[in-house]
Amino acid sequence: MNKFYANICERFGLNAYVMGDYQKAESWFRKLEQSEPDSIRVLRNLGIICSMAHLSIAIQRLAILHTQPAREKRQKSDIGLRSKIRNVLKVARLSI
After folding, report:
1. pTM higher than the cut 0.70
2. What pLDDT sits at residue 40?
3. Residue 94 burial (CB count, 10 A)
4. Could you tell me which of 30, 91, 27 has the C-alpha nearest to residue 57?
């Protein structure tokens, strides 16, 4: 991959990240990773994007939990989901 195309991939990936489209951002950085597998900047950006994507999903699920009636919140599956959300939040704090 030439330098120009690598810069385009990085720019499009960063633009998608800023717009909140983490899936598209990840796909651009995965393309860049294929040509620069040991690049610190590529791996760092992939880590940030992936952690933000998981954090975004966790926040959406948490919002859904808080809008459900109280009876549904007490289900056992919610307890497992809450612990998963806590784990994702811990990972996100470590990557920042």
Report:
1. no
2. 86
3. 8
4. 91
- Give CA–CA dist 54/49, Å, rounded: 9
Tokens of 35: 């040509």
Digit-coded pLDDT (tens) for 34-64: 888 888 888 888 888 888 877 777 777 777 7
Q: What is the rounded CA–CA span in Å between residue 63 and residue 78?
A: 12
**CA angle centred on 96, ends 84 and 62, rounded to 5°:** 30
Instruction: Tell me: pLDDT of 7 over 70.
Output: yes
* Token pair recorded at residue 48: 């940030």
Higher pLDDT residue, 4 or 75?
4
Q: If you search the block for the tokens 């307890």, which residue do you land on?
A: 79
Work out the average pLDDT over 13-25.
90
To the nearest 5 percent, what fractions of the chain are helix, strand and coil? Answer: 85, 0, 15
